[in-house]
Write a structure and sequence with these properties.
By secondary structure, this protein is mainly α. The protein has one domain. It has 21 helices and two strands. The chain is globular. About 5% of the residues have low confidence.
Length: about 450
């Protein structure tokens, strides 16, 4: 029975996930079955489940997830992203494809305070897409660009995926945050090169049509709302810009800098970041109702996330205690594949899973098994983490379960744009993500360089 236990557990897990059972429930059921196989005692299995639940939910580090989400929500509602996009756009006036560049650069900066790709996707769809639409950008390019550049939100710190990866592997969350900065800038650079190439080869895609009068463009920023309505915003005042800049600097160099310098734990840094974001939001006009909605929104997002993270920790401990994890890892390491072949195998698994389930679920299912294998074959832990996150991020852009693409489409419900159009526009950005995976693999120093300074 022990020989078939790993295959039985893995097969049951995949069957439950593919059948549509919630990932948390699937992980819990599989963990219970694995413990029963290992101990043959239902009492021990139940005690193991309850002890794991107690220890997981009282763990101090778990508070970092809702706090970073709260920080990003306050920033998104405060109008800082609007000010940021306006400032970058005005500095790029006259540049062909300036709205596209402004979207990428805006996502780079916004990524330092959002923590999630979905927040970036919804925010910049509301702000940037109406501008690109009025300027004559092709929908597949503009919406694909917004979807692809939103992935910077999960790569540049603070990233929820990095937090979850750190929890699952016991790696330093601060080091993971640092490891994502250079690859994030490399990815943003590839996006800028892509925009430049498109604007040179096909200028009509970025609105540069010879028959279009320059006066057709307005300087006002138009913001799309989820209900399909639109409103024209005005150029932010100097005071608004100053508040936004000070707020961004305080969060990035205060909260994140404190984590990197060792002054704060990730949880403390997240709490400080959320507090600063709240203060900035209040100064910029957030009302009590806005704060209430922000907290409620984070609660709705964080609660199920915390449940599945707990279930994943249970799954990870079960694999370790029962020995099934070691058996699965042994099956892969003794398969005859070279270290590079094993990495390719893991990447392919991530890409396949990315077409059917969300990114966090992929991480919860695979990282407890794949991370020890990466250690055994000599891969740098930080480089492997970034390769995993980048590959899993590509799943956010692939059909039929590309969450970022669905988030972008949800913000513009009245637009006559198909999901296939957005997925097609996002395809080049999937390629760019995989190009950065290759860069990190061949040059792991890109993930380790900044750590030597902290």
């Amino acid at each position: 029975m022990e020989t078939f236990a790993p295959l039985l557990v893995l097969g049951l897990l995949l069957a439950l996930v593919f059948a549509g059972v919630e990932v948390a429930v699937s992980l819990g059921l599989v963990s219970l079955v694995a413990i029963l196989i290992s101990t043959q005692d239902i009492g021990i299995a139940i005690n193991f489940l309850s002890n794991t639940a107690y220890n997981a939910l009282r763990d101090y580090v778990f508070a970092v997830v809702p706090l970073f989400l709260l920080m990003g929500e306050f920033i998104a509602r405060s109008g800082i992203a609007y000010d940021l996009y306006w400032a970058i756009d005005r500095r790029l006036a006259g540049l062909r494809g300036r709205f596209a560049y402004a979207t990428v650069l805006g996502n780079v900066v916004f990524a330092f305070v959002s923590g999630t790709s979905l927040a970036s996707a919804t925010t910049f769809t509301a702000i940037a897409y109406p501008q690109m639409k009025r300027a004559g950008y092709e929908p597949h390019f503009s919406l694909g660009l917004i979807s692809g550049s939103a992935c910077l939100g999960m790569l540049i710190p603070p990233s929820i995926l990095m937090v979850v990866w750190g929890i699952l592997t016991d790696q330093s969350i601060g080091h993971l945050f640092l490891a994502g900065i250079i690859p994030g800038f490399i990815l943003a650079g590839l996006m800028a090169i892509y925009i430049f190439a498109v604007s040179m080869v096909r200028p009509d895609i970025v609105g540069h049509k010879t028959a279009r009068p320059a006066a057709a463009l307005s300087s006002d920023v138009v913001v799309e709302h989820v209900d399909g309505t639109a409103s024209a915003g005005k150029d932010p005042s100097g005071t608004d810009m100053l508040i936004s800049v000070i707020g961004l600097v305080a969060i990035v160099f205060g909260a994140l800098g404190g984590i990197w310098a060792g002054l704060f734990t990730p949880t403390e840094g997240a709490g400080i970041g959320a507090l600063v974001a709240l203060a900035v939001g209040i100064v910029k006009g957030m009302k009590v109702d806005d704060i209430y909605k922000a907290v409620l929104s984070v609660g709705r997002t964080a609660t199920p996330l915390m449940i599945i993270v707990f279930a994943a920790q249970l799954y990870s401990r079960t694999l370790s205690m029962s020995g099934i994890g070691n058996q699965l890892q042994e099956m892969i390491t003794t398969s005859g594949l070279s270290p590079t072949g094993m990495l390719i195998f893991m990447v392919v698994v991530w890409l396949i899973l990315g077409t059917i389930i969300d990114s966090i679920s992929i991480m919860l299912l695979t990282v407890p098994i794949f991370a020890p294998i990466a250690m055994k074959i000599g891969l740098d832990p930080l480089a492997f983490a970034l390769m995993g996150i980048l590959t899993i991020e590509a799943g956010l852009l692939t059909p039929p379960f590309g969450l970022v693409v669905y988030a972008v489409r949800a913000v513009i419900p009245r637009e006559n744009v198909s999901m296939a159009t957005i997925f097609l526009g996002a395809l080049p950005f999937c390629v760019m993500l995989m190009m950065v995976v290759g860069i990190v693999y061949f040059f792991p120093i890109t993930t380790n360089y900044l750590i030597r300074f902290f």
